[in-house]
Amino acid sequence: MHVLAQEQLRLDAGPVDYVLLALYFAFVLGIGLLARRSVSSSLDFFLSGRSLPAWVTGLAFIAANLGAVEIIGMSANGAQYGMPTMHYFWVGAIPAMLFLGVVMMPFYYGSKVRSVPEFMLRRFGKPAHLVNAISFAVAQLLIAGVNLFLLASIVNVLLGWPLWVSVIIAALIVLSYTGLGGLSAAIYNEVLQFFVIVAALLPLTIVGMIKVGGWSGLVDKVSTQYGANELSAWPGNELTGFGSNFLSVLGIVFGLGFVLAFGYWTTNFVEVQRAMASKSMSAAQRTPIIGAFPKMLIPFLVIIPGMIAGASVQEMMVFKQTGEGNVEYNDALLLLMRDLLPNGILGIALAGLLASFMAGMAANLSSFNTVFTYDIWQAYIVRDRPDSYYLNMGRWVTVGSTVIAIGTAFIASGYSNLMDYLQQLFSLFNAPLFATFILGMFWKRMTPAAGWSGLVFGTFASLSVFLMAENEVLDLPGQGASFVGAGAAFVVDILVSVVVSLATRPKPAAELVGLVYGLTPKEERTASNTGEDAGWYRRPALLAGIVLVIVIILNIVFG
């Protein structure tokens, strides 16, 4: 953020706001201390002892994704692109979340693996396991840096502290509760943070809509200043960077809706870890589906305020029309808060922003420490130690990863729209992993050699697209590079996996029960509907059907 921008964004917080912030931090640390009492083994620390109810893990599932990236990044996208940003939720999230709940959670939860890379170990063996564990660990440290940078930016704007001081203070706060209580502390804080975030963003959206004269007023302002394209979600050419409507829709449906979305939601251990902490198979399946209900409505709390800022905040309007000024799209939400919120409400909004950034970063750290400790340290470096050793190791890894995240925060500071950076990371790390997963889960002939080679070549394909776009060999403005990169990673991964599988020997079928769909008995991949899981309203498939119908209606209404 520029020096002038800091002055323009300085929020006029009063004593009431600081008291509200102090109360919030006291709650956060209190939850960490309480959660510490229930940690007696590494399973407690890394997976909450698999004991949490579905509503808790469901809200945590969404709050873990409601990080800085989601709130600042999506409001930046709203200011820059308008309604096409809705695709990140209704096309690029909900279908994949439902697929995770209905189809994939029975394999994750039923196989009793402790992480996604451990599933890869069972299905494909050590080389694929190691490639996945390392690439996941690197991605989490880079994404934690994004959350940390934005968290520090808020502290910097609020208090005027130098950015590097803000980064360190923000990191210490998150470290304190994740280091104390592990995943339980992160999850219970995420539930608290979900409600704080909604309490923060709802008044901002309402006051903003009143300011621009309601929905019709916003439509008039946006269409007059920027044209009607920003008011309909389809075909979304501005977002994808494609001139052709057909290619744009194809990019959104295949690149974002299929490869990037399924790659992120179904194989990303940050999210899957929350479902794995559930107390039963049914609760694990319902976790992402319960999360899908609020996920559908969050665009109205993050994208609409971004559009309001783009159409009504003077500095943002000048920047959008001329590309000049001391603000950038990432500032959209802060500018709106500065202009619209009185003291007291401002304190709640600031607590909500801090909550979102802490939730995102804590999710990155809690998943990183699990994968690093179980899948790298215990599997390859220091084996066969008592469980207490790995529990303590998990705490030290949390400290180390926080220090590294402070470094990666400064990489993130170089991007004016952080969603561009994030989508690029997802196309590199998640898209090839999804291809390997989906082929390996439904094709028993896929071999261990294909598991790791597909991942490596898929990642190189995505990296090649990124480098060509950066050097202007390919003309891919907007977020087109990440969509094309994700598609390339998926296709190359599948092709390499098929060719290598046909040339190498598969595992015996007996070793693939519980890991491949066709070889797993139906009762092993079906949740029970008895006891605590009884009742039609707890049936994963029915709940998923309800969500899907609502999403289709939303796409039609706002399309």
UniProtKB/TrEMBL annotation:
MF (Gene Ontology): D-glucose:sodium symporter activity
Membrane topology: Multi-pass membrane protein
Chief place of localization: membrane
Signal peptide per UniProt: none
Pfam families on file: SSF (PF00474)
UniProt KW Membrane keyword: yes
Transmembrane segments: 18-35, 55-76, 88-109, 130-155, 161-180, 192-210, 246-267, 288-308, 345-372, 393-415, 421-442, 449-469, 481-503, 541-558
GO cellular component labels: plasma membrane
Subcellular location: Membrane
Keywords, sorted A to Z: Membrane, Transmembrane, Transmembrane helix
The keyword DNA damage belongs to this UniProt entry's keyword annotation: no
Listed InterPro entries: Na/Glc_symporter_sf, Na/solute_symporter, Na/solute_symporter_CS
Family: Belongs to the sodium:solute symporter (SSF) (TC 2.A.21) family.
Name of protein: Solute:Na+ symporter, SSS family
Organism: Actinopolyspora mzabensis
